[in-house]
C-alpha cells in the first residue's frame, strides 16, 4: 500500500489533476474522513493548489470563513512555524484546548463528528507555504502512534512532489514568457548549442528559415547560406568552446550577403552556462541575432581582424593586403621593413586559414556589404 501511495504522489508532481484521486486513496489508507491540500504563493497570494476531498456542501463553502480560527486551533502562526518540518502535527497533542474552545472546532468540526486532525507541512519558505490536513471522524477512533508513523513515511515524498510541481510551474511560466518576448522582436533570434544544434527559433527567425537565402537547417543544425559567413560562424563557435579571446566577453558581428533577403548582420552572443534556465535556455551555448543591415559598423577588414584575433600590427597589414597592395608598398606605408610586413602577413594567413594573398582578399570581400558609408 505504501509503495502504491508513493507512486501516486509522484504522478501528481507531473500531473496535478491526479491530486483528488491520490488524496482520496491517502485519506482512506490512513483512516481519515477528509483531506485538504493547499499551496499558497506568498508573493502573489495565488493558490496554485487548493484541493479538498470528503467535505460536502454547505460545509465546504463555510470552511473558507474560518481562516484565522484554523490557524489559531494549532496554537497560532508561531507554533506552526516552529513545528518540525519532518513530523506530522496532531491537533489533540499540539493544542488540546482547541478541541473545546476554538470556534472552528465547535461550529464546523464537531457538528460533522470530527474529533481530531493531523497536518503535514509541505512547503515553508519565503515563496510559499503548503500543507496537507486531514480530519478524523470519531467513529475511526483516536489518532494513534501507528497512524503518525505511517504519515511520517509519506512526508518526504509529499514534500518532494510539491517542490517538483513548483519548479515545473515556474519553468513553464518562464519558458512561456521567454517565447512571448522573443517572438515580438523584429530581429531573428536563434539559440544554438556549441555543435550548431538549433534549440529555439523565434517568429522572425522562422520566417527567414522559410524564405531561405540566409540560413537553413541540416539535421537540426544551423547552416548559413553564405559560405564566408558560415566559416566565420564555425571559427566563432570554436573560439567559444575554447573560451579564448574577446568573443567570450562581447560576441562577434558578421555581415551577411544574401540573395533576395537584403543585406543583414549576424551577431553571435555567448551564453554563460546557467543551471535552471528554462526550456530552450537550458542547453543553449550561444544566441544568434540576425537583423537587417541599417548602417555600416566598420570595414570588412576590421570585422575579419576582430573575428580572428589579429594583433594591431597584423590588422594594419591586412588592411593594405586586402586592398591589393604589394608587400613593398605596405611596408613603406606602415614604416616597417618588407620582411616584417611579410612576417605579419604570414601570421594573418595562419590565423585565417588561407595560403595566398588572393585568398585573403576573397575572404575579406566575402564580409563586405554594398551599403552606403
Comma- or semicolon-separated keywords:
single chain, 373 residues, alpha+beta, Beta-Lactamase, 3 domains, five-stranded antiparallel sheet, 12 strands, 47% helix, rod-shaped, disordered C terminus
Short overview:
The chain is of the alpha+beta class. It has helices at about 1-15, 20-30, 60-65, 65-75, 75-80, 90-95, 100, 105-110, 145-185, 205-210, 225-240, 245-250, 300-305, 310-320, 325-335, 340-350, 355-365, and strands spanning about 35-40, 50-55, 90, 115-125, 130-135, 190, 200, 215-220, 220-225, 250-255, 265-270, 285-290.
Explain this structure.
The structure is a single chain. The chain has 373 residues and is an alpha+beta fold. The protein has 3 domains: 2-176, Beta-Lactamase (2-Layer Sandwich), CATH 3.30.450.40; 185-294, PAS domain (Beta-Lactamase), CATH 3.30.450; 298-373, Arc Repressor Mutant, subunit A (Orthogonal Bundle). Helices cover 47% and strands 19% of the residues. The protein has 17 helices and 12 strands. The protein has a 5-stranded antiparallel sheet. A 5-stranded antiparallel sheet has the order 7-6-12-11-10. It has a two-stranded antiparallel sheet with strand order 8-9. A hairpin with a 2-residue loop joins strand 8 and strand 9 (221-224). Helix 14 (312-322) packs across helix 16 (338-352) and helix 15 packs across helix 16. The longest helix has 39 residues, at 145-183. The radius of gyration is 33 Å and the shape is rod-shaped. Residues 244-249, 274-282, 294-298 and 369-373 have low confidence and may be disordered.
Amino acid at each position: 500500500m505504501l509503495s502504491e501511495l508513493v507512486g501516486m504522489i509522484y504522478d501528481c508532481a507531473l500531473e496535478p489533476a491526479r491530486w483528488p484521486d491520490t488524496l482520496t486513496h491517502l485519506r482512506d489508507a490512513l483512516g481519515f474522513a477528509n483531506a485538504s491540500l493547499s499551496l499558497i504563493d506568498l508573493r502573489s497570494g495565488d493558490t496554485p493548489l487548493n484541493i479538498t476531498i470528503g467535505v460536502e456542501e454547505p460545509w465546504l463553502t463555510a470552511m473558507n470563513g474560518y481562516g484565522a480560527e484554523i490557524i489559531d486551533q494549532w496554537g497560532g502562526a508561531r507554533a506552526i512555524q516552529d513545528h518540525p518540518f519532518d513530523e506530522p502535527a496532531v491537533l489533540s497533542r499540539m493544542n488540546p484546548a482547541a478541541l473545546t474552545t476554538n470556534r472552528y472546532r465547535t461550529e464546523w468540526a464537531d457538528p460533522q463528528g470530527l474529533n481530531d486532525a493531523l497536518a503535514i507541512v509541505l512547503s515553508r519558505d519565503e515563496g510559499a507555504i503548503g500543507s496537507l490536513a486531514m480530519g478524523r471522524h470519531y467513529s475511526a477512533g483516536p489518532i494513534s502512534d501507528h497512524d503518525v508513523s505511517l504519515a511520517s513515511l509519506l512526508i518526504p515524498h509529499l514534500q518532494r512532489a510539491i517542490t517538483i510541481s513548483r519548479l515545473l510551474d515556474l519553468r513553464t511560466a518562464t519558458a512561456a514568457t521567454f517565447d512571448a518576448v522573443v517572438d515580438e522582436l523584429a530581429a531573428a533570434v536563434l539559440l544554438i548549442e556549441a555543435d550548431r544544434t538549433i534549440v529555439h527559433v523565434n517568429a522572425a527567425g522562422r520566417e527567414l528559415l522559410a524564405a531561405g537565402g540566409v540560413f537553413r537547417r541540416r539535421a537540426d543544425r544551423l547552416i548559413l547560406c553564405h559560405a564566408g559567413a558560415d566559416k566565420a560562424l564555425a571559427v566563432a563557435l570554436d573560439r567559444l568552446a575554447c573560451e579564448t579571446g574577446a568573443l567570450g566577453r562581447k560576441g562577434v558581428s558578421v555581415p551577411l550577403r544574401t540573395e533576395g533577403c537584403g543585406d543583414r548582420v549576424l551577431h553571435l552572443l555567448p551564453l554563460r552556462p546557467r543551471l535552471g534556465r528554462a526550456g530552450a535556455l537550458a542547453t543553449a551555448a550561444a544566441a544568434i541575432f540576425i537583423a537587417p543591415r541599417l548602417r555600416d559598423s566598420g570595414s570588412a577588414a576590421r570585422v575579419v581582424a576582430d573575428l580572428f584575433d589579429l594583433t594591431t600590427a597584423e590588422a594594419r597589414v591586412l588592411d593594405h593586403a586586402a586592398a591589393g597592395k604589394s608587400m613593398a608598398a605596405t611596408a613603406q606605408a606602415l614604416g616597417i621593413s618588407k620582411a616584417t610586413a611579410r612576417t605579419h602577413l604570414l601570421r594573418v594567413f595562419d590565423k585565417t586559414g588561407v595560403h595566398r594573398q588572393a585568398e585573403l582578399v576573397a575572404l575579406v570581400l566575402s564580409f563586405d556589404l554594398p551599403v552606403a558609408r
